[in-house]
């Protein structure tokens, strides 16, 4: 397999990946090291000479083209591909750019073992790796059908049932069991109501750790505002979301008490005065001052209560799909729910729950 030197100029003889990549496969685990590991091979058209500044700016922008969590997952997938190539004796020149037959073989290695989504995610990671390396991508129609075959051959054990959504009854159970003389329970309830009615991903409002760096893209108290046209809604500005680096707005409207998100948020802000620049869901904890509510601590407290009520263990995304389902079941127009939840059209329908209940609301007796 050969490619024109106009497009590919290996940095290391016999190794089109460059020596840096093979120096430490473990470096693919972290965000910073993955950026270094997948740094594009200095491949430039021989007829065009750009300044080093221009080339560096491309590298800099490219390294920020993927979210940190995505890079971590993709790095692991590239590791798996390289291990597969090693076990099959695939020569380096057929690994990057990956030969079409090798891609199909790697995808097919998941047949009867893994879920189809696992194979598709692995291939998506390899495609991103090729983009970062400025290498030709040799995906094909055959690869498409191999992935479809892996999907059909996935063992039953890999097919997880849909995650159960949170519902308003569960929020009421939280309210009944939490201790509102405890500042931590106050913030837990506020976060639950905002995540549910605002159709939020938990990662948009709660950090994975209490380290300052983990909170830099999360909302603070300054990101809350009331509508300038009426007093019937509260807007929470999310500085950054999974799909919008520039951020998005969450509009909270009044609901029946005691699970009204606006009231719950107001209770929290009064009980936990932490300053305008503090993370929105920080709370007071005695002499220790402000403590940041993390995603893990939040879910731990919620599941502790719900387990006692007989509910299955829930995950963070259950709040988002739960809020969506609750609004749809209440008869709110799907277009309004979609806009309020900041859903893209395809994903929006994927996460609908209780379709047997929704269908009569919108399609019964149409003729």
TrEMBL record:
Protein keywords: DNA recombination, DNA-binding
Record InterPro entries: DNA_brk_join_enz (IPR011010), Integrase-like_cat_sf (IPR013762), Integrase_recombinase_N (IPR010998), Phage_Integrase-like_Recomb (IPR052925)
Superkingdom: Eukaryota
GO molecular function, one term: DNA binding
Annotated segments matching region Disordered: 1-21
Database matches in SUPFAM superfamilies: DNA breaking-rejoining enzymes, lambda integrase-like, N-terminal domain
Gene Ontology biological process terms, A to Z: DNA integration; DNA recombination
Protein name, as recorded: Uncharacterized protein
Source species: Mycena maculata
